[in-house]
Amino acid sequence: MASRKYLLLKSDRGDRSIPLAEGERNRVKDPGIGNKMSAAVTGLKGTCNAGHVVGEGFEISCHNPGGLCGFFYHALFPTLSVMGSGGRYPRGDPDVIEVECPDRINLLSLRLERVEP
Q1: Rg (CA), the chain
Q2: pLDDT digits (tens, 9 = 90+) for 13-42
Q3: What three-state secondary structure class fits 92?
Q4: Which stretches within 1-117 are classed as H helix?
Q5: At CA 114, angle to CA 111 and CA 117, rounded to 5?
Q6: Are 77 and 65 in contact (CB under 8 A)?
Q7: Of 9, 51, 52, 87, which has the maximum CB count within 10 A?
């Protein structure tokens, strides 16, 4: 019999545990709102702390960080929100944008592309 997994919540009022359902992980489920987006790693100078490599591709959205580290995802979130909700930037292809990691020593470059539903 497998042991049950729990999510530990810490606060100034004390710690508490919430049981997770079988196979469930601590992450937000994608509600299916907005456009899907794909990301492709187009460049890397140094070593990505999240383990991404040039040529790798993955899905990403406001509900799915795609394995990015918190720093890059935080910096990228406004762009994901604009593109995911159908917004456009005034220059270039409205469905594609090139973005870079805020870590300038280990610079990761991504190409984000809005995917047709």
Answers
A1: 17
A2: 677 766 665 555 555 677 777 888 999 999
A3: coil
A4: 70-84
A5: 150
A6: no
A7: 52
